[in-house]
Amino acid sequence: KILILDFGSQFTQLIARRVRELNIYCEIHPFNHFPELDSSVKGIVLSGSPYSVRQEDAPLFDFAKYHKTLPILGVCYGAQNIAHFNGGEVMKSSSREYGRANLQYIEKGNPLFKNVPSGSQVWMSHADTIVSLGKDFEIIASTDTVKVAAFHIKDTQTFGIQFHPEVTHSIDGKQLLENFLVDICGCVQDWTPDSFIETTVAGLKEKLGGDKVVLGLSGGVDSSVAAVLLHHAIGKNLYCIFVDNGLLRKDEFESVLDSYKHMGLNVKGVDAKQRFYDALAGLTDPEKKRKAIGRVFIEVFDDEAHQVQDVKWLGQGTIYPDVIESVSVKGPSATIKSHHNVGGLPDFMKLKVVEPLNTLFKDEVRKVGKALGIDPNILGRHPFPGPGLAIRILGEVTPQKVAILQEADAIYINNLRSAGVYDKVWQAGTIFLPVQSVGVMGDERTYENVVCLRAVESLDGMTADWCHLPYDLLAKISNEIINNVKGINRVVYDISSKPPATIEWE
Ligand code: XMP
């Protein structure tokens, strides 16, 4: 495997994605907190950073003791970090170097640049530049303005590059990474969904033996894939619990429960609708609603888990972005903080946690799910918030409002599907507004509620753009909702992006 040591760059996860696209397994660790280097580690990549090595509190680490034993590739700040500790000098650039550049000079025959043509476009993003190098260094690539675009330390496998090979604007970036990983580190490109499944299932079998595991299914991609992997390993010793909180989409509980049973999972559907509605009665503050739902879920789940005799483990669908330790950009004494979802185990359950997906990114979870033969309807499903429709009903949640919203939402989602746009939208949903407005239906004056349609494009939910859905489609959806859903006489479309808005309304 490859270790990626993180100095706090926004691109660190992207480097990991690129390495894995080359079917090579890698892990991200904070620069000052990495694991034992055993023989499974074939090389190290040092990430970029928002810091300058000249800053007093910069995150710095001297890798010199590894130069003779392990291939190292420093990217941007990572390269400057290497130069800094080995007799080089890093200064503020006279002009900020940001954007496209071309490698006018590339050293002939250097293994890092195999099949990278001279003139190749690369992406620069740095305020500092390496102005001089230690005596053992050689320059292996330059652009018109950046003399040290890439260097090599003689008699070692240590390289530094000033540009970002992980972004697609670096045209031959993937080739360069492949050269480093395969030719220089000697990695074998055999990490695929199938090999992941094989090793994970074998590992789970060994770890769990004859133990029983309980797992909460949500209908989402992560918990479903985690369940199927565990099922392959331990079969009927996996006890799945799928809670109907009364806040799911229309008919979702029944249809998803059905697919789970079809997959052969040992799953119990629990109707807890009333417990959730009771807890939500009278609450209008979004955070109080969220807390109430979280509390009731834990109570219901715990009741169910207690019905399984001698259960030892709690299965969870935690994925890699949730467990990557982030580098606190406060310098070398950086405290390492974990994501708040990790260890989300209530104390009183006292179970050990098993998380078969905690090394995978979201798109990899989908690929593994596909290789496991899971229903494409489950794998391709839009993200749906844990508190469900409760945060799409502004103000107090009542079963009547849920029923109205479910009808309107079903019309919306079915139309997105039949128009062939469902898969192009990252997330869509309908919001029940606490607003009544006047309308006319026939000769009658109405005074009813408004629903809002939301559809966004996004990569990870952190930022999002509203989707430009075709007017004809919006017109059809609006008509169908107003004509068929009693209680709604007006439909609006949300044209706000995130930031400054958010995807949900609460
Ligand atoms: P926002 O509204 O913050 O949403 O732009 C970003 C993503 O997070 C989801 N979301 C939640 N998911 N519990 C969840 O499990 C929540 O309380 C919650 N709030 C928002 C939202 O659906 C979107 O995908």
UniProtKB/TrEMBL annotation:
Tree of life domain: Bacteria
Gene Ontology CC annotations of this record: cytosol
Catalyzed reactions: XMP + L-glutamine + ATP + H2O = GMP + L-glutamate + AMP + diphosphate + 2 H(+)
Record GO terms (molecular function): ATP binding; GMP synthase activity
Active-site residues (renumbered): C76 (nucleophile), H164, E166
Key words, A-Z: ATP-binding, Glutamine amidotransferase, GMP biosynthesis, Ligase, Nucleotide-binding, Purine biosynthesis
Signal peptide range: none
Binding residues for ATP: S218, G219, G220, V221, D222, S223, S224
Record-annotated GMPS ATP-PPase domain positions: 191-381
Pathway connected to this protein: Purine metabolism; GMP biosynthesis; GMP from XMP (L-Gln route): step 1/1
E.C. code: 6.3.5.2
Function of the protein: Catalyzes the synthesis of GMP from XMP.
Oligomer status and interactors: Homodimer.
HAMAP family: GMP_synthase
Protein name in the entry: GMP synthase [glutamine-hydrolyzing]
The organism of origin for this protein: Mucilaginibacter ginsenosidivorans
